[in-house]
Amino acid sequence: MKIKDIKVWSVDLGNTKPYTIAFKTVDEVKNAFVEITLDNGLTGIGAGNPSEYVVGETLDQCLDALQENNIEFLIGRDIREFNQLTFDVWKRFPENPSARAALDIALYDVFTKFLDVPLVKFLGQKIKKLPTSNTIGIKNVEETLKEAEDYIKRGFRVLKVKLGRDLMEDVERIMKLREKFGPNIVIRIDANQGYTVEQTIQFYGRTYDLDVELIEQPLPAKAISEMKSLPPEVREKVAADESLITPVDAIELLKPPKAAKIFNIKLMKCGGVSQALKIADIALHEDVDLFWGCNDESIVSITAALHTAFACTNTKYIDLDGSLDLARDVVKGGFILKDGYMSCSDKPGLGVERI
């Protein structure tokens, strides 16, 4: 069963709710897409949306990597050589994680369609459903409360609040959220590398009684020694995000003392399902919880991340809201969302269909 054709294209999926985080404002969502066709007509789709600030890859570089002359090595290959194919993709594109992710996801999709099983079943499903957080960008207190109320009305009970510009305002926003909504919501925060060690400790202390679930990437990505210098009780709450790109990073973060008790895995950082599973395995052996995140992405790659997350016993948190505010997409189907909880469908592969 051989690969007959590979198509590559890009689309601006639009963003109905532009938002601001510590280092940028997001107002457009350009994704690269890959569709693999087998000689029996089966197709698999993958998607990539790089974060240049995090991995140093632009969308143009992603698309350049996916040019025909770079991916023709897959044409004529037998999909049953699946593990070798994903390995070859990893080796061919060392500097292009989102290009790798798009190809890797498409290979997983078409192979599990060939097997006639959902991707999560092929990987070994451990989890049936989890609540996803919905993200509130950097806003003033009034706007924060209004957006939180909108999400709660839509059935979401987990909020991720972007912080990292002004410590005192950050604390006030969390205080007001807890005052207004009480214990009925879960609050997690993401400082996007915006704090110093001292500010991280201050934030932890000032919000100790506000039941903040986790603190995502408070320090700069390369500040590993500084992360390890945080008090143990703070590191228990810290989720490494921008510091964690590859399995090698995971090993470095775990050298005593552990820099974080939680790993944030994104397919767009590590390069797809294959490498994500390697990071997850490393974390499992060191009793580290998993927190699955995303960029602003198509349903395609969000669904791939969800299937991968639900195949890992140490998955405790998901933040897979990256397709919820898109103006359009190239597929329908995929993940199931009900009352803020995400689950996988029982359709083969990712369970998505081209529109």
Automatic annotation (TrEMBL):
PANTHER family associated with the record: O-SUCCINYLBENZOATE SYNTHASE, O-SUCCINYLBENZOATE SYNTHASE-RELATED
Cofactor note: Binds 1 Mg(2+) ion per subunit.
Active site positions, chain numbering: K162 (proton acceptor), K266 (proton acceptor)
E.C. numbers: 5.1.1.-
BP term (GO), one: peptide metabolic process
Family assignment from sequence similarity: Belongs to the mandelate racemase/muconate lactonizing enzyme family.
Swiss-Prot/TrEMBL keywords: Isomerase, Magnesium, Metal-binding
Top EC category: isomerase
Gene Ontology MF, one: racemase and epimerase activity, acting on amino acids and derivatives
Organism the protein comes from: Chryseolinea serpens
List of residues binding Mg(2+): D190, E216, D241
Record carries keyword Transmembrane: no
InterPro entries in the cross-refs: Dipeptide_epimerase (IPR034603), Enolase-like_C_sf (IPR036849), Enolase-like_N (IPR029017), Enolase_C-like (IPR029065), Mandelate_racemase_C (IPR013342), Mandelate_racemase_N_dom (IPR013341)
Tagged with keyword Magnesium: yes
Mandelate racemase/muconate lactonizing enzyme C-terminal domain residues: 141-232
Gene3D superfamilies linked: Enolase-like C-terminal domain (3.20.20.120), Enolase-like, N-terminal domain (3.30.390.10)
Signal peptide boundaries: none
Protein name (database record): Dipeptide epimerase
Cofactor(s) listed in the protein's UniProt record: Mg(2+)
